[in-house]
Amino acid sequence: MKTFSLIQLPHHFLCARFFSYTTTRTQLSFPAKVFICQAKSGIDGSLNLKVVSPTLLVAEKEEAKAVLTLFLKKQGSSNAVAARTINKSDLFIDHLVSKLHSKHKSWYLAGRELTTLEIRDALIPYLESLFEEHGDTLVDVVENYPNPPVKDKSEVLVSPSSPVLDSKKLKAVSLVSETDPDGGNLRPHIVYLIELGMDIEQIRSITHRFPAFAYYSLEGKIKPVVEFFLELGVPREHIPTILSKRPQLCGISLSENLKPTMKFLESLGVDEKQWPKLIYRFPALLTYSRQKVMESIDFLHELGLSEENIGKILTRCPNIVSYSVEDNLRPTAKYFRSLGADVGILLFRCPQNFGLSIEANLKPITAFFLERGYTLEEIGTMISRYGALYTFSLTENLIPKWDFFLTTGYPKSELVKFPQYFGYSLEKRIKPRFSIMEKSGVRLLLNQVLSLSSSNFDKALKKKMKKMQDG
């Protein structure tokens, strides 16, 4: 096993078969492949290991590649540069997969696989934090991971007394736990953040990503923003998460930037009553320029969406403005249009579709239905009727539910009429309902089996049974 210098990425994100870290030397041992995720269990905190299947690993790596590709393109990389970076980033992709295993270790131990959207939601904030830290050099960091690019080989291994990170960043991080010489108290804004529910390590992590955070004054920067959010109705327990996601908010002027931005977004249709939820879900929205927001809005108008519906999209899915129009929104719209779907209606119903990769997410699902005998026209009808269809995982959702559907005796055309079938829980809804229907000896339409409430489902069964008896 080769030993590399840990210069760019924090060691606590690594979840691998073997892991070593020392405080005297800034080095880590990084394995060539990641196969196992560790999870603490037991009173003594010992580690139990669960092997992730090779098939699942391959699928997760492809998902991670798709997320990284979209992220690089969103930051301005061309298709060619993004493709080249992906081809040279095997170790970084392994790291992203290990990040998933570390973040959701309890799920893996319970045999729960992540969906496409869950993978994306787990990785994008992490990639954003790396971009904030490394900026235009992120591509070099990715391609050279875990051995960061350096000018001189002597810089690769450093002595304990040499700074690993930029001196300004080191100083900023050190300020977090610095106390005044007289009372031995932490700096006022650190105390304030701790009282809000943050811990020292969390504040250090934010400062490591965004050093300016250490220098924000309590009364002039942090407290006014926090109190403003609280006045809006943001729950106090959500504040630490919001600040962790977007510490830049504390550096924005309330009167000159933050409030005018909110008024601007409200003029576009954002529901002011939904600000608490919106800020919690996607605080970065308040830091985007008007030009960036209008690029997305103009495209939504181009698709024929009304101002009212655009406002609803911004409220329900504010991260739509983070998608690149030319690299993401337009190509995705073209793809769904090729299936015969009404793109405007689809985007309104399920804007999350437009954050997915065409190659890694959309085309495999289309191929899945084509392989099972559906025509492109039928697939277009299905996605038009149920916008969330393409957001589901093939392995976690579509395949097992399809396999069960084959045992029901219903014709394939029923899924064209009622693609919402794939949105119901297989174990908690689909199987129990079919079991009840089988015992009753009657047969309902697929949508009746699943969409009716329990009481109405019982009524429909009894009505059908009576009809059969009378007949």
UniProtKB/TrEMBL annotation:
GO molecular function: nucleic acid binding
Sorted UniProt keywords: Transcription, Transcription regulation, Transcription termination, Transit peptide
PANTHER family hit by this protein: CGI-12 PROTEIN-RELATED, TRANSCRIPTION TERMINATION FACTOR MTERF5, CHLOROPLASTIC
GO BP, one annotated term: DNA-templated transcription termination
Similarity section: Belongs to the mTERF family.
Pfam families in alphabetical order: mTERF
SMART domains: Mterf
Domain of life: Eukaryota
Name recorded for this polypeptide: Transcription termination factor MTERF5, chloroplastic
